[in-house]
Write a structure and sequence with these properties.
Length: 148
Amino acid sequence: MIIKENNEVLIYTDGACDPNPGKGGWGAIILEDGKEKILKGSEAETTNNRMELTAALRAIQAIKEKKKITIYTDSRYLQQGIEEWMPNWIARNWKRKGGVLANKDLWQALSAEITHRTIEWKWVRGHAGNRCNERVDRIARDAGRNGK
């Protein structure tokens, strides 16, 4: 496991929902200042996408200092939403080109959190052997199953 220097934080996030929609969980592994912190939570009725967004949001909110953050996610929805789609949603007053924006509340909260931060978003292939990604997947699934 890589632990970065004091000026950078690494975060691995994941969301899970079984069935989708249904009972879901989210997890985050935060590697900061040589330490590891685990965050997790669940919702009784949700979607996988909501859990992916919630994991990233809660992890970012947990970083109190304005350090450089690198977030690893296996969710194209999250990564592309932040890096590609969000500017257009903002320009359209939080609407998609085709109408209503799903998960608008979480996208708006993420937008507010990332505005004054330096965050690099990195996509990793899920279930492909990345140790931290596999681990955060288990954390999210367990949170969803156990309601914690």
